[in-house]
Amino acid sequence: xxxxxxxxxxxxxxxxxxxxxxxxxxxxxxxxxxxxxxxxxxxxxxxxxxxxxxxxxxxxxxxxxxxxxxxxxxxxxxxxxxxxxxxxxxxxxxxxxxxxxxxxxxxxxxxxxxxxxxxxxxxxxxxxxxxxxxxxxxxxxxxxxxxxxxxxxxxxxxxxxxxxxxxxxxxxxxxxxxxxxxxxxxxxxxxxxxxxxxxxxxxxxxxxxxxxxxxxxxxxxxxxxxxxxxxxxxxxxxxxxxxxxxxxxxxxxxxxxxxxxxxxxxxxxxxxxxxxxxxxxxxxxxxxxxxxxxxxxxxxxxxxxxxxxxxxxxxxxxxxxxxxxxxxxxxxxxxxxxxxxxxxxxxxxxxxxxxxxxxxxxxxxxxxxxxxxxxxxxxxxxxxxxxxxxxxxxxxxxxxxxxxxxxxxxxxxxxxxxxxxxxxxxxxxxxxxxxxxxxxxxxxxxxxxxxxxxxxxxxxxxxxxxxxxxxxxxxxxxxxxxxxxxxxxxxxxxxxxxxxxxxxxxxxxxxxxxxxxxxxxxxxxxxxxxxxxxxxxxxxxxxxxxxxxxxxxxxxxxxxxxxxxxxxxxxxxxxxxxxxxx
Length: 582
Description:
Blueprint: H1 2-5, H2 15-47, H3 52-101, H4 104-109, H5 112-119, H6 121-133, H7 136-154, H8 156-203, H9 205-210, H10 214-240, H11 242-267, H12 272-294, H13 296-313, E1 335-342, E2 353-360, E3 365-370, H14 376-381, E4 391-396, E5 399-400, H15 406-411, E6 413-416, E7 425-426, H16 427-431, H17 440-449, H18 453-458, E8 466-467, H19 476-489, E9 494-498, H20 506-520, E10 524-528, E11 540-545, E12 548-553, H21 555-561, H22 563-573
Parallel strand pairs: 3-10, 3-11, 6-9, 9-10
Antiparallel strand pairs: 1-2, 1-4, 4-5, 7-8, 11-12
Helix pairs in contact: 2-3, 2-7, 2-12, 3-6, 5-6, 5-8, 6-13, 7-8, 7-12, 8-10, 8-11, 8-12, 8-13, 11-12, 17-19, 21-22
């Protein structure tokens, strides 16, 4: 239960209401424990002696104790819910904040469905346990301890029966806890898989319909759903045997009290009221154990969920700001790759990039060409430290980017990725995502440079048009243009356009290039493109092949010196017609 106990740190900010909640619970237990003693008084002093005044006064005391117990219980419930909800909200925020610190390498290994389950279902399991800890788990031991004390005060011999049953009950609960945890862990893993399949179905619904694969996806979901159902049934069947077992022990204890207590009543060593009180107290002592047994399932589930949450919270970002990192006050924009080796598996035995030596001077536009898988995107992702090199170094103005603070480094870089990710909200807010303080004029200027202004103003609400999830109500080309505008608005020293016009038609792309020429002249730019027409006017064209620099130079130089570049040019523009690179 170490994982679950570590969650106490999220309860500490709510220490005051938590303590008050437990004090109210103590009031509930005291009030409940008074009732059997008062019942004994009614029987032995009231009914047996036919004293109506004792019956009335004691009944009123019992009523008062019941009312107090109810009031204390309501207060305890309100406070425990407040603590549990607050702790779970903080836990969800901690997960999101932690994920935001992860680098691309961390996120490559964590599926989105897993993160969703851990921030929802797993957090709910922990939340339930926090709430139950301030109610059942606190109440049960107090109730049990108080009942044993009151049972000893009532009849010491009968209390021995409780002491004999106690280790049996504890042993059964521990057995169930040990067996239930791996079962619940398996359930959460199956839930991860279910969420992953569901997410893929929803995100790829257009592809599914286009290829008439609905039946296939339905069957795939059904298999995953069935696997989760089977595991859930297995867990519930196992847990279902616990409650009857605990109830049988409680009934055994009551039978024992009646058997041994009845013999004492016959010989005059115990009153009828005493045996009634003893039955209540032994039930009070064993019933909390039954409650704890009933919570064995949720407790095991919460511990398994807590362990999964700590896998995220204990994770270390692969890319971090070094303790002695600096912030450059005036960045010119010279970017250099020096003997760079990079691999996604952290080993240069199978590098994605190897032996890269490349420099971009301030204000230069560097175009990067190459076949799919040649390492184009991987190369530019090293500049803002989305990933770190395995060997060599990437420098900005002669300083290793690993020696700069991430905030300072990334504030100087504007990025428009091939997959344009937009957020639900107004178009204006998406464009100024990197500079929320940008003026309306600056937003419009960036949109015009990205050739987005005309289609934005064609919408009835213009820049106030609300986008759906991931910009679903825009075309691919429109999303890419907004992404470019977003990158331009931050006025970066280094601009990275990672195949960001692939969904744009040739005419629009030409307009974007013309509009960008003036803007790119003031900053160092890296442009990845599939169309060679996009990069003809670049200051430097770099051809990647198999993770290495196969050639670099201007268009004219490469036409003379690089067979690979010449082949690309001929395949696309040899007949003065644009073709698609296969």
